[in-house]
Specification:
It is built from twelve helices and 19 strands. The chain is an alpha+beta fold. Strand 14 and strand 15 form a beta hairpin.
Length: about 450
């Protein structure tokens, strides 16, 4: 993916450079490298380093930690789309005897399986995977800490189990499957399970002195699907485009959208923070923007991938230190800088190429009781229903081809919208999951549940 620095204004490029310079200096990172994606390609790349005369470019590998989980989730969704498994299947169906078999595949993806956050000691991130040769070594004697499906509890062993599931169903090692099914089709030539030169070394920075300690770089073994990968800003930029648009060679846009949809019940603190978790992707509301992506860390490395779909801007930030700059804030700020300074120019409005007369008849103002709503036909052949005022229930709808519509989001997700006609064929009202929407508030000519007072509307003296 070629970087085109001329796509951004000089002032925007300077603001981006200033942000990563502050992050590297104040976070005391040996090096920090970043990229911004807009319109499906890299439009800016920047690096700061403590080594004079050297700056890492978009081809230098860093360890990306838990961003690996998003890659593993893609492999699982591919198995689902092929009909090999169902996300509601229990783990026991495919990997019996783990002690966590009642958890479903979806719950493992969303970190709601009840599994522990970490494997039993010693700390898996700083010790060789050979110490944990079997799943029981990763899961421990009592794998479940919480009731299955009841709460979001981030679990590294959960993604180890998903990697083992991929290996069982594909009959090949996780790393080989990943390379064949994701890395090569997307052209991620610098993404690998083992480091490939040029790559950064991992460092620990002393908290009270400006000195360094090299961190070990272990092969994580069975834990690899939770955090093994090495990658670059260039490759993660390509991966960000895939997570925004999908790629039928790997995963459809619809399935990628499913990954981005919150799937876990949030903790109270998550509600306060505006954060949620989908299927292998983090979802967060920050500065009025909905951001998706994932963070990652392993001893010696920090990583962040942040995507704003509404702004068509993504950011990748990598650093080679165990702790230091808060890369989630850096990534969000890079997105904000570009989106605020150079807001997305919308595509020209164009009329629909054709419209069904029966569908057009549904457009306009409707009332649920006394609550006003507007139904609009959208250019993609769907429809939207939203309140005329306030923050009431709203949803997009997909046409079913038989005159009915299915809700795609919010309160009406999965609910059926059905136009109801009179014996003469004229449109009477809309039935939406038993709710009756009429052209006038409590229209006496429609089938309003409970009926309408025959004396009609009145005042009070």
């Amino acid at each position: 993916m070629t970087t085109s620095q001329d796509d951004l204004l000089p002032s925007t490029r300077r603001a981006l450079l200033h942000r990563i310079a502050v992050a590297q200096a104040e976070g005391r990172a040996p090096s920090l490298v970043a990229a911004v994606v807009r319109g499906g390609r890299v439009v800016w790349h920047g690096a700061r380093t403590s080594v004079d005369g050297h700056g890492p470019d978009e081809n230098v590998q860093y360890r990306i930690g838990s961003i690996t989980k998003t890659f593993t989730a893609v492999l699982v969704l591919r198995l689902r789309d092929e009909g090999v498994l169902d996300l509601n299947d229990p783990l026991e169906k495919y990997l019996p005897g783990t002690g966590a078999g009642e958890a479903t595949i979806a719950q493992l993806l969303a970190h709601t399986s009840g599994l522990a956050a970490e494997s039993p000691a010693p700390w898996w991130e700083r010790t060789p995977g050979s110490l944990r040769p079997e799943l029981r070594d990763v899961l421990g004697e009592q794998p479940l800490l919480h009731p299955v499906g009841r709460r979001h509890h981030y679990s590294n062993p959960g993604y180890t189990v998903l990697g083992a599931l991929v290996e069982e169903l594909r009959g090949a090692p996780w790393a080989d499957v990943l390379r064949r099914e994701v890395v090569e089709p997307l052209g991620l030539d610098r993404t690998s399970a083992q480091p490939q030169a040029p790559h950064a070394g991992g460092w620990a920075v002393h908290p009270w002195a400006d000195v360094l300690l090299p961190e070990p770089s272990e092969d994580l073994g069975l834990m690899a699907p939770a955090g093994q990968l090495w990658s670059t800003t260039g490759d993660l930029a390509r991966f960000a485009v895939f997570l925004a648009d999908g790629d039928d060679r790997v995963l459809s846009a619809e399935s990628v959208r499913e990954m981005r949809t919150p799937a876990a019940p949030p903790e109270a603190s998550d509600v306060m923070d505006g954060s949620a978790y989908g299927l292998g992707l983090q979802v967060q509301r920050r500065d009025g923007r909905l951001l998706i992506g994932h963070g990652g860390s392993l001893p010696g490395f920090l990583a962040n991938l942040t995507i704003s779909l509404a702004d068509d801007v993504s950011a990748v930030v990598l650093a080679n230190c165990t702790s230091g700059p808060l890369l989630s804030s850096v990534g969000a700020d890079l997105v904000r800088i570009v989106a605020d300074a150079e807001p997305r120019i919308p595509e020209p409005w164009r009329p629909m190429p054709e419209v069904d007369a029966a569908a057009l008849e549904l457009a306009g103002q409707w009332y649920w009781g006394t609550h006003g709503f507007a139904l609009r036909l959208t250019a993609d052949g769907g429809a939207s229903l939203e309140p005329l005022a306030g923050n009431g229930r709203r949803s997009r709808f997909r046409a079913n081809g038989d005159g009915t519509w299915t809700g795609l989001e919010g309160y009406y997700a999965g609910e059926l919208l059905r136009p109801v006609r009179r014996p003469d064929g004229s449109l009477s009202h809309l039935d939406l999951g038993s709710f009756v929407f009429t052209r006038q508030p409590y229209d006496e000519s429609a089938s309003v549940p409970g009926g309408v007072d025959p004396e009609g509307w009145r005042g009070i003296r």
